[in-house]
Amino acid sequence: MIQLDEKGLVPAIAQDNKTNEVLMLGYMNPGALKRTIECGQMWFYSRSKSNMWHKGEISGNYLKVVSAALDCDGDAIVFKVEPEGPVCHTGERSCFFTPIDKQPEFKQFEKGSRVLEELFATIQDRKLTSPEGSYTAVLFKEGVERIAQKVIEEAGEAAIASVIGKQEQLVKEVADLVYHSLVLLSASDLTPEDVWQVLRNRQKTDHSNIKCEPF
Predict the structure, then answer these.
(1) Backbone φ and ψ of 93, nearest 5°
(2) What domains can you pick out in the chain, each with its CATH number?
(3) At what angle do helices 167-187 and 144-163 cross, to 10 degrees?
(4) Contact, 64 vs 82, CB < 8 A?
(5) Per-residue pLDDT tens for 29-69?
(6) What is the Cα–Cα distance from 145 to 141, expressed in whole angstroms?
(7) Cross-strand pairs, 51
(8) 50: left (phi over 0), alpha (psi -120 to 50) or beta
(9) What torsion do the CA atoms of 175, 181, 185, 188 make, to the nearest 10 degrees?
(10) What is the largest CA-CA distance in the chain?
């Protein structure tokens, strides 16, 4: 059994079948793994673009899968591959070519959905403490019906913004919709995890229907 991380992904290492050189590290979701196994070439999931991608689709440098092995904890996969050219987008044979000869600096990963969990934690705190001047606390005092009304309003405004092509406004309206939806969950004694579980179940159904696209 494969253990996915909190984002529904598993690290996937590509290793040269002849030399055992580690060529690259990427991430897979169940759909990318399914395509990799069925198609015989490496597919990954892009965390920045939130989409599956076929390694070599643009460069032509595909990675032909020879074998795959799961580690002892079930949370990482090593693929033995036959590379059809340089693996790194820089033109290097391997992505691992930068030496570390001193204590490196670290860059925090600021993209992704972790902000939702942090926002919901703040919402829960406002629900509990009801601080003066808090818009969230006011919503809780007004009740579920008012919060539900705000969700409907924000959904409508987001839809209108998309129809008229105002992308910047659409992003803001969707942010408002997400926020008010989280408040509605809290007011209904539910959490985002309840929603994530429903999405996981639907995702399993979707992945079972994925077919290998011709190359």
Answers:
(1) -65, -40
(2) 11-98 (3.10.20.810), 114-201 (1.10.287.1080)
(3) 160
(4) yes
(5) 998 999 999 999 999 998 877 789 999 999 999 999 999 99
(6) 11
(7) 46
(8) left
(9) 150
(10) 67
Which pairs count as long-range contacts for 1-4, CB under 8 Å and 24+ apart, including other chains? Answer: 1/74, 2/33, 2/70, 2/74, 2/75, 2/77, 3/73, 3/74, 3/75, 4/29, 4/30, 4/75
Rounded Cα gap, residues 165 and 18, in angstroms: 52
The secondary structure of 50-117 as a DSSP string is TEEEETTTTTS--EEEEEEEE-TTSS-EEEEEEESS--STTS-SSS------SPPP------SSHHHH
Contact criterion met (CB below 8 Å) for 119 and 186: no
Alpha-carbon distances of 164 from 140, 153, 160, rounded to whole Å: 33, 17, 6
Q: What integer pLDDT is reported at residue 51 of this predicted model? A: 86
Split at pLDDT 50, 70, 90, the class of 215 is very low
pLDDT tens per residue, range 174-193: 999 999 999 999 999 999 98
136 CB-contact burial (10 Å; exposed 0-12 / middle 13-18 / buried 19+): buried
